[in-house]
Design goal:
Number of strands: 10
Structural class: alpha/beta
Strand content: 5-15%
Shape: globular
Strand order of the largest sheet: 2-1-3-5-4-9-10-8-6-7
Helix content: 25-40%
Length: about 400
C-alpha cells in the first residue's frame, strides 16, 4: 500500500498525477533538501503532463529521469512530485484551464506568473526548498519577480534540457527557483560549472527600465549605486536595442520561437486536437501561420541582436534591469490588461533569450513594502558569478529586517 503524500498542498500547486516522492541519496551537497519538478520534466515511472490532459493521455510514461532530476537526486535532494505548468509552457501568466491557478502566498489576490506557476507557488509557500522550472521567454524570471523568489535563466545549453517537454528548443532552458539565497546557490553549485568571469563594467539598459512600472525605479537605482561601489566602476546608461527598440526585439523572439514551436508540436496539435485555454490556443494558431521566410528573417535579426549584446558585454560586462514590467497581475484581471503587461514584460525578458545569456532575478523590497525582482544579466558562462554577485548585492540593498 502506498504511503500518503506527505505534503498538504495548501496552494493548489501539484498536479493530480504528481503526488509522489523519490528519496535522494543519503548524503551529498543537497542532502536534507526537498524539491518539486515542473510537469515538463521526465521522472521515471510517472507521466509527464505538460499542463494538458491530452498530452498526458497521448504520451508514454517515461522510463528514465531527465538528467537534471537524476543529478539532483544523486546530490541528495528528495523529489516531492510534480507541479502545475501553464499549457506546454506557452504563457507567462500562471493559470491553467485544466488544473487551476496556483496561489501566490505573498500576494494571494495576484497570480504567480507562468509558465513555472506551480514551481513558484510551492516554493513561495515553503512546501519545498526549491523547485525545477524552465525559462523560454521569461517563465522563471517572471514568477520569481511576482512571488519574491530567486530565479535564473541559465546560459542557453549550460543545464541539460534532455527529458524535458520543449516549447521553443533554441530558447528553452532548465532551471530552478528558491526562496532562500543559500539554497539557491547550493543548487547552482550542483547544476552549473564554475565561472571564470570577473565582472567589472556596469551597463544600464534604459529602454528596459522605461518599460517597467515606476515602483521598479528606486530599487534599480539602489542596486546601481551599490553595484558601482562593489565593482569599483561608474555605470554607463545606454539603449540596448538602439533605434530598433525592444518591442521590435520582442517580435523577433515571438516570430522565431512560434515557428520553431509549431515545427515541434504542430503535428501533435493537428492530430490530437487538444483543448487549450483561449490565450494559449490563440498563440498556437498564430504559430501555425508563421512562414519559413518570416522565421528565417527573424533568425537573421536574432543573429545581429546576439552579436550586439555579446559585444556590449564582452567577458566582463553586466546589465542591470527589471525582471518584469509590473507586480503580478490580479487573479481576475481582464484579458486585455494581462496581455498589455505580458507584452511589456517580454520586451524586457527577450534580451537574454535572444542572446542566449544568463540572467538572475533577485527579490528586493520597494519603499512601499512590495517585493519585486531586479536582474543581473552577464556574459555566457558567468552564471555562478552572477549568483554570487547577486547575493552580495542583495545583502547590501535588501538586508533582512
Amino acid at each position: 500500500m502506498n504511503a500518503p503524500f506527505p505534503i498538504n498542498d495548501t496552494v493548489g500547486a501539484w498536479v493530480p498525477h504528481g503526488k509522489f516522492t523519490i528519496a535522494g541519496q543519503p548524503d551529498g551537497p543537497l542532502a536534507g533538501l526537498s524539491f518539486a519538478a515542473k510537469d515538463l520534466f521526465d521522472v521515471a515511472g510517472h507521466p509527464t503532463g505538460a499542463g494538458n490532459p491530452s498530452w498526458l493521455a497521448t504520451h508514454p510514461v517515461p522510463t528514465q529521469h531527465s538528467p537534471v532530476v537524476a543529478q539532483l537526486l544523486q546530490a541528495g535532494a528528495t523529489l516531492m512530485g510534480k507541479v502545475i505548468t501553464d499549457e506546454l509552457a506557452y504563457s507567462l501568466h500562471g493559470d491553467n484551464t485544466h488544473y487551476g491557478t496556483p496561489i501566490n502566498t505573498r500576494y494571494p489576490n495576484r497570480v504567480t506568473g507562468g509558465s513555472s506557476s506551480g514551481s513558484a507557488s510551492a516554493v513561495a509557500a515553503g512546501l519545498v526548498d526549491f523547485a525545477l522550472g524552465t525559462d523560454t521567454g521569461g517563465s522563471t524570471r517572471v514568477p520569481a519577480s511576482y512571488c519574491g523568489l530567486w530565479g535564473l535563466r541559465p546560459t542557453h545549453g549550460l543545464v541539460s534540457a534532455q527529458g524535458l517537454v520543449p516549447l521553443h528548443p533554441s530558447f528553452d532552458t532548465a532551471t530552478w527557483l528558491a526562496q532562500d539565497a543559500d539554497v539557491f546557490e547550493r543548487v547552482g553549485r550542483v547544476l552549473l560549472p564554475a565561472s571564470s568571469n570577473t565582472l567589472r563594467r556596469l551597463l544600464l539598459p534604459m529602454d528596459a527600465w522605461e518599460l517597467a512600472d515606476d515602483l521598479f525605479h528606486a530599487p534599480l537605482q539602489r542596486a546601481r549605486d551599490a553595484l558601482a561601489q562593489q565593482l569599483g566602476c561608474a555605470s554607463e546608461a545606454l539603449r540596448i536595442a538602439g533605434e530598433a527598440g525592444l518591442p521590435a526585439w520582442r517580435q523577433t523572439y515571438v516570430t522565431a520561437g512560434a515557428y520553431e514551436g509549431w515545427q515541434v508540436h504542430g503535428e501533435w496539435i493537428t492530430q490530437a486536437q487538444p483543448v487549450f485555454a483561449p490565450a494559449v490556443a490563440g498563440r498556437w494558431k498564430a504559430a501555425s501561420q508563421v512562414s519559413a521566410e518570416a522565421s528565417a528573417a527573424a533568425r537573421a535579426t536574432q543573429a545581429q541582436i546576439r552579436a550586439r549584446v555579446h559585444t556590449l558585454l564582452g567577458s566582463d560586462g553586466l546589465l542591470l534591469l527589471p525582471s518584469a514590467a509590473s507586480l503580478a497581475p490580479l487573479r481576475h484581471a481582464a484579458a486585455a490588461d494581462v496581455d498589455a503587461v505580458r507584452l511589456r514584460t517580454m520586451a524586457i525578458t527577450c534580451i537574454a533569450g535572444l542572446s542566449g545569456l544568463p540572467q538572475i532575478s533577485l527579490p528586493v523590497r520597494t519603499t512601499g513594502g512590495d517585493v519585486l525582482g531586479i536582474s543581473l544579466l552577464g556574459p555566457a558562462g558567468s552564471d555562478l558569478a552572477l549568483i554570487q554577485l547577486a547575493r552580495q548585492l542583495h545583502a547590501q540593498i535588501d538586508p533582512a529586517p
